[in-house]
Amino acid sequence: MKITIVLPYADLSGGIRVIAIYADRLQKRGHEVFVVSTPYKQPSFLEQIKSVVKGQGWLNIPSRASSPLDDIDVEHRIIDSWRPIVDADVPEADVVIATWWETAEWVANLSPSKGAKAYFMQDYGAPGQELENIIPTWRLPLHIITIAQWLVDLIHKHCGEIPVSLAPNAVDTEVFYASPRGKQQHLTVGLGYRTMFSKGTDIALKAIQLAMNTVPDLRLVTFGQPLTDALPLPPNAVYEYRPTDDRIRQIYESCDAWLFPSRIEGFGLPILEAMACRTPVIGTPAGAAPELLTEGGGILVKPEDPEDMSKAIQYIGHLSDSEWRSMSDKAYSTATRYTWDHATDLFESALYTAVERSKRGEPVLDR
Question: What is the model's pTM?
Answer without folding.
Answer: 0.83
